[in-house]
Specification:
With 251 residues, this protein is an alpha/beta fold. The chain is built from six helices and nine strands; from the N terminus they run αββββββααββαβαα.
Length: 251
């Protein structure tokens, strides 16, 4: 796969860069309240010079520069020059690798989705659940992942059949607002029931039932969208009931 510097953010949060950026500091994220005291506009541009760069397997830049602007790798290469507004950091003698991505992980979300908004009739269906709204970084786990070269993770809800939406997060030590790179990445299904769950736990109580519930929910979602479309065309029709789960899944 050809390497493109601007696409490095998809592989990003290099361990070495994360440590350096964390040490030197980013500008505070924008907020609406007025600034108390003197306003500061710390540049969030870094030029990491004289580094040995391994952008992809089999390709090595023995001495190059990486430009990071607002957390995104803007340029990297042997001929890359530090911008005038960059804070220059000499990485002579160090090697920088592209980070690995853990393509799937799970987090337990304790939220009771049945008590939030217009939930689905079955608590095993929660597509409106967004991991980003409940994510809390596990520094012990993140440290282990970083030690293995993993810098970005895809994390999804751990339970239910229609489980909810995953988020792309870094394994750095940043606060959640900076750790979450992208929310609503995918919708996750698990077409079986939890290990050890029997019929006493309610419907569904078998893998076949789980598949049937998922299939019926997709059919319900199709009906839900058509029912609302019909009502918007003619408001004299009965207004459909609101359902956050079906509304979220329709997307």
């Amino acid at each position: 796969m050809a390497w493109r510097p601007r696409n490095w953010i998809a592989l990003v949060a290099l361990v070495a860069i994360a440590a350096l950026v964390a040490h030197y500091g980013f500008a505070a994220p924008p907020t609406t309240p007025p600034v108390i005291g003197l306003a500061q506009n710390t540049p969030a541009v870094f030029a990491l010079t004289n580094a040995r760069i391994v952008p992809e397997p089999g390709k090595v830049i023995e001495k190059g520069t990486i430009v990071v602007r607002d957390g995104v790798i803007e340029a990297a290469g042997a001929e890359t020059k530090p911008p005038a507004d960059a804070r220059v950091i000499d990485l002579a003698g160090k090697t920088v690798y592209a980070g690995l991505i853990d393509a799937f992980g799970e987090v337990t979300i304790a939220a009771d989705i049945t008590k939030q908004g217009a939930a689905n009739w079955n608590p095993q269906v929660a597509p409106q659940l967004d991991t980003a709204d409940h994510y809390a970084a596990d520094e012990a786990l993140n440290g282990k992942l970083r030690s293995q070269g993993i810098t970005v993770r895809l994390v999804a809800p751990a339970t239910r059949i229609i489980k909810g939406q995953s988020a792309l997060v870094t394994t750095g030590s940043s606060e959640n607002s900076r750790a979450i790179l992208k929310r609503g990445v995918a919708q996750h299904f698990r077409l079986t029931i939890s290990f050890g769950q029997g019929r006493e736990a309610g419907y569904p109580g078998s893998p076949m039932g789980a598949v049937a519930l998922a299939r019926q929910t997709l059919l319900d979602t199709d009906w839900y969208g058509k029912a609302w479309a019909a009502w918007r065309r003619d408001t004299k029709l009965p207004r459909p009931e609101r359902n956050d789960a079906l509304d979220s899944l329709a997307a």
